[in-house]
Every structure is written in structure tokens, then in C-alpha cells.
Amino acid sequence: MKCLIIGAGGIGCYYGARLIEASHDVTFVARGEHLKAMQQQGLSVEHEALQFQAPVDALSMHELLAQRQCDDYDLIMLTLKSGATAHWLNEAKDWLLQGSAPILSLQNGVDNEPLIAGVVGEARTLGGLAVRIGGHIIAPGQIEARGPAQVVMGRWPQVDAEDPTLTALAKALNEAQIPTRTTLNIRYELWKKLLINNGVNPLSALTGLDTRSLTADPALGKTVYAMMQETAIAASADEVTLTAADVDEMFNLISQFDAIKTSMLVDREKGRPLELDDISGAVIRRCQQLGEAAPNTELVQRLLQLDIRPVQWQPLTA
């Protein structure tokens, strides 16, 4: 399989390294010092079950559009930040429409797949989510990742029967030691993941705490749960039903998972834009559409927008 990974950050590079280890051809699209390091020194990925160091095929987006064709690839894996999806689709539209490669979104939020389908059509749009993985660039060309790093994927927005092409793709990913399952209703799965993302990502960025610290704290754990409940309410605007059992399942999952820094916390520490509009914003907009309240999500988002940060108290001196 020939795979193109757009957005070669922590998660994209981890999955790409797994595919290379399984003898698939992978092209990474990155930028800046990270791209330069990958081109000159190769890619390094540190994971509890993978130690990867090798030269890789890495290009800028400009180089990709000029030097390659869409049909050079069997799969395009999109691991960009959600806020960059629309810009990338606009930049690559003509290139994408000259080929037929499917696009698998492995991004946060529930609004990426409609954007992709609006450009290449639903037949080429695969919804997906990366589950139980934390991955970050720790230095140019160097990735640190943790967790089982599972993938759930399905045709957008849902189908009535298993798809042979999707089944074959899942088989290839599983053989590359990327635990993968397919679903007939990917929109439901994306909303289930948003339960966790909205529950911990914004609050983690606000407080500077990892996921385990948040859920274990008596007050903050209640806030995480309440933000998950608000997410479940918002899902009905997309005709997705998330039950109390779904909320409990996702809260227990993130409570028992290894303590990790969320991607939003890392972005805030590094001064990068936050995925607020695609996580908490998605919940708030839909709750407003339904005439429902989302007070916890609204408060945390607003504090982040105001750049409220934890105070580092110093002891009084005489």
C-alpha cells in the first residue's frame, strides 16, 4: 500500500512508522524545522512497543503538489489539526480531484468529514478516529507516542453493510500492528470520542493538568463528567444518540487510561492555536441550535479565549 500522511505530527508519524515497518510506502507532508529534520536526518519514533529510526520520504505541501499525483497513493491519511482542514482542502482541491484516492480523517472533532465530502464526495470520504494514543513532536524529526493507538474507521456518514475495500484496508492496518476496527456508523463513533475530547482537552489546557489528575480530582472530575454530558446533548443535533451509558463508558475509559497531556495542553504550552472551535465550539453551537445549555463547556472555552492561566503562587517573605 502507498500511503500519504498529511500533517506529520505525533499521531501521523507514529502510524506512518508502523506502516513503514510493515513494508508499506509512506510519504509524510510536514513543514518547517520538523520537515527539514525528517528530510536530512530521518524520523525517530519512541513508543513503549516501537523504536523507529529511519530515513523517510518527507515533502512540503508545495513539493507534493508539484512532484506527485493523487493517484500515486492508495490512501490519504489526514492527521492535521481540525482548524487546518478547510485551508488544506482548498489548497489541494484541484490535485485531489485529478485522482481517486480515499481520504481517511484521523482528526479531533465531528466537522472534518463533511468538509472532506464536500470536496471529494462521500464515496472517497472515510471517517476515523485515533483511540487511546498520545503523540507529540518532542524535537524536529523526533516523536514520542504512548498508548495502544487504536483506529476506528467507517464510510461517511454511515452504511448498511460491510465494505470489502474498507475491510481490506483494516486488514492492512492490523497487520501493521495498528489495532483497527470498522464500523457501519462512524458518526456515532466520532461523537463518542468527542465525549472525551470535550471532557478533558479544554479543561486540561486551562489547568495545566494531565488527564488522570483531572478525573481523579473530586471537583474537576465532576466538571469533566458534566462537559461530557453536555456533549451527549449536543450530539442529538446531528441525529446521534449518546446515552448515559456512553458517557459513563468514556469517563471510565479516560479515568483508567495512563496520565497523558492532552493535545490541547501541549498546544497551549507551545503557544500554538487551540482546537477550541472544533471541540468545545462544536458542542456549544449545537446546544444553542437545540435551545439547550452548556454552561461548563461555555465557561472553560471562554476562560481559554481570555488566556486565563494557573497562578504560580510564591510564599510570602519577610
UniProtKB/TrEMBL annotation:
<keyword id="KW-0566">Pantothenate biosynthesis</keyword>
<dbReference type="InterPro" id="IPR013328">
    <property type="entry name" value="6PGD_dom2"/>
</dbReference>
<dbReference type="InterPro" id="IPR051402">
    <property type="entry name" value="KPR-Related"/>
</dbReference>
<feature type="domain" description="Ketopantoate reductase N-terminal">
    <location>
        <begin position="4"/>
        <end position="157"/>
    </location>
</feature>
<feature type="domain" description="Ketopantoate reductase C-terminal">
    <location>
        <begin position="185"/>
        <end position="305"/>
    </location>
</feature>
<dbReference type="InterPro" id="IPR036291">
    <property type="entry name" value="NAD(P)-bd_dom_sf"/>
</dbReference>
<dbReference type="InterPro" id="IPR008927">
    <property type="entry name" value="6-PGluconate_DH-like_C_sf"/>
</dbReference>
<dbReference type="Pfam" id="PF08546">
    <property type="entry name" value="ApbA_C"/>
</dbReference>
<protein>
    <recommendedName>
        <fullName>2-dehydropantoate 2-reductase</fullName>
        <ecNumber>1.1.1.169</ecNumber>
    </recommendedName>
</protein>
<keyword id="KW-0521">NADP</keyword>
<dbReference type="InterPro" id="IPR003710">
    <property type="entry name" value="ApbA"/>
</dbReference>
<comment type="pathway">
    <text>Cofactor biosynthesis; (R)-pantothenate biosynthesis; (R)-pantoate from 3-methyl-2-oxobutanoate: step 2/2.</text>
</comment>
<comment type="function">
    <text>Catalyzes the NADPH-dependent reduction of ketopantoate into pantoic acid.</text>
</comment>
<dbReference type="Pfam" id="PF02558">
    <property type="entry name" value="ApbA"/>
</dbReference>
<dbReference type="InterPro" id="IPR013752">
    <property type="entry name" value="KPA_reductase"/>
</dbReference>
<dbReference type="InterPro" id="IPR013332">
    <property type="entry name" value="KPR_N"/>
</dbReference>
<comment type="similarity">
    <text>Belongs to the ketopantoate reductase family.</text>
</comment>
<keyword id="KW-0560">Oxidoreductase</keyword>
